[in-house]
Design goal:
- This protein has a two-stranded antiparallel sheet with strand order 1-2.
- The protein has helices at 2-32, 39-55, 60-83, 91-113, 138-160, 162-172, 174-179, 184-210, 219-230, 235-255, 257-260, 268-279, and strands at 128-131, 134-137.
- The protein starts with a helix and ends in a 14-residue tail after the last helix.
- The chain has a single domain (2-279), classed as ABC transporter involved in vitamin B12 uptake, BtuC.
- By secondary structure, it is mostly helical.
- Strand 1 (128-131) and strand 2 form a beta hairpin.
- Helices cover 72% and strands 3% of the residues.
């Protein structure tokens, strides 16, 4: 039982890391209906920018602030130059645009900072901590606390502010929101800017865990099952989906992996996502699409 709990807790904390990336998708999709495939490249760009500034001698705090400003600027630039010009285009056009953006951001990151692998140290030890007999990684606890603080902050932003009310209005019905005077361009700009900051947080945590390398952009593929299970339009769903994916993949690898030859951790989340697509296409917290015909 103790081993089971250690695997379960480790999986739940790993799922929080997946949720960090998925939240960036949810923010943009909820406000504009765009599936931003470039979110993984934004995570890479943020981590690479931060670690490069630190290696060049800038203090930690100054590097963090400068990278946050860069990511906000990138989010605003993407909204103004791409999204705003493709309003009312078919979803596949918007998806292909963000797919192209991912390669542009990766190429820009390589041009600015090079392609070598960097180690990222946040000052948080990854040594295990014993909690009531269960060994838990200190870094995973830090990541979970960071994700919790981020979710609380976003919830307060969306539920307690006029901007959050405007965002919910845009998410429910963009045309109705426009009719009552909500500035869609302002809402979209703020959402992309916030998504840039979320990419920075996810980039720092993932970079400290696996190193800052160009494969970091592929964590977007890990976020897909999380989004399918949790729902594309729910921040809470991103957290729930991440916890479910993280725990299930670890338990499956430990208990189902040996009979199946091992290595199922990489593909088991997609099996689970496929089951959800067949049984509940909108996910746990997703809103069903209702159209008047």
């Amino acid at each position: 039982m103790q081993f089971f709990l250690e695997v379960l807790v480790g999986g739940l904390l790993a799922g929080v890391m997946y949720s960090m990336v998925a939240i960036g998708f949810v923010l943009i999709y909820k406000a504009s209906g765009v599936f931003n495939f470039a979110q993984g490249a934004m995570v890479l760009f943020a981590a690479l920018t931060f670690v490069s500034l630190v290696e060049r001698g800038l203090p930690f705090g100054l590097s963090l602030a400068a990278t946050a400003l860069v990511m906000v600027a990138i989010g605003l630039a993407i909204e103004r130059t791409v999204l705003r010009r493709l309003v009312n285009r078919p979803p596949i056009v918007l998806f292909m645009a963000t797919l192209g953006l991912s390669f542009v951001l990766e190429g820009l990151a390589q041009t600015l900072w090079g392609s070598q692998v960097h180690g990222l140290e946040l000052g948080i030890s990854d040594t295990p901590l014993q909690v009531r007999g269960v060994m838990v990684s200190q870094f995973d606890l830090f990541a979970a606390a960071t994700a919790g603080a981020l979710v609380v902050s976003l919830s307060l932003l969306f539920k307690r502010t006029r901007l959050g009310l405007a965002l919910r209005g845009v998410a429910d019905d963009p045309l109705a929101a426009l009719a009552i005077g909500i500035d869609l361009r302002r809402v979209w700009a703020v959402v992309w800017a916030v998504a840039g900051v979320v990419a920075l947080v996810a980039g720092l945590l993932w970079g400290a865990r696996v190193g800052v390398q160009f494969s970091l952009s592929l964590i977007v593929l890990k976020a897909l099952p999380v989004l399918i299970i949790g729902g594309f339009s729910s921040v809470s769903g991103a957290i729930a989906g991440g916890l479910l994916i993280g725990s299930s993949e670890k338990l499956a690898e430990v208990y189902l992996g040996p009979p199946l030859g091992g290595g199922i951790e990489n593909w088991f989340p997609y099996v689970l996502a496929l089951i959800f697509l067949l049984m509940r296409p909108t996910g746990l917290f997703g809103e069903p699409l209702v159209e008047r015909v």
